[in-house]
User: What shape does this take?
Amino acid sequence: MDWLMKCFLDKGCNYPGAVCQDPRFVGGDGITFYFHGRKDQDFCLVSDKNLHINAHFIGKRNPKLKRDFTWVQSIGIMFDNHKILVAAKRTSTWDDNEDHLVLSFDDKPVSLSLPTNVGSKWDSHILPEVSISRTSNTNGILIDVSNNFRITANVVPITHKESKVHGYGITDEDCFAHLEVGFKFKNLSDAVDGVLGQTYRRNYESKIKVNDPMPVMGGAHKFRTSGIFDTNCAVSRFGKKDFNAKVGFAGKGRNSL
Assistant: This one.
């Protein structure tokens, strides 16, 4: 079994590189935190010289709080001159047997073989080092880009039980299908930034109040970007190789968790 998938099955959302729930992150330093962002906006999760990952947040406004309830609906991955989109389809009634995944590579839809089967695999004819395979019959995939990254992504709904416990206010019109993802990075520099990416730097010092019931990372304005495939957030490093000369390279330990 793939290492990253084994972590996901064994530890759920409790290993470094995990992004789950509303959204709950586990940083490269092992510290757990929440980043709420804002609904219907895009935020940079990782930005490095040859890798940039944005997330599109969906959510609901809670009038009792000063923030939105949010979840990651899609991720846009950019590397070299290529891009991959992984998204959850909007749906009202959840069915485990129905595929709620949307995939594209360089703006062209990716179709994993039907009928759905675990292990079904798509390989890029343009870029042989890129593959996407199913980790479950529906709603689960593993993306592998050799010498760069591996990503697991699962589409899950907000259940009525979760909604009741947390006060999400989910209705039958939309179950807010969203992604739970896990990242393994193979070649990050020490200039990497982004909500998650910064936690992989050797010199990163977390300002998260770890003893809080819900430790939250702020600074949303730094990570906001204008679109799922835009790299114009304030902390963008994509394509800016000069940052590496100034800062050096990330330690092997956090790249190869």
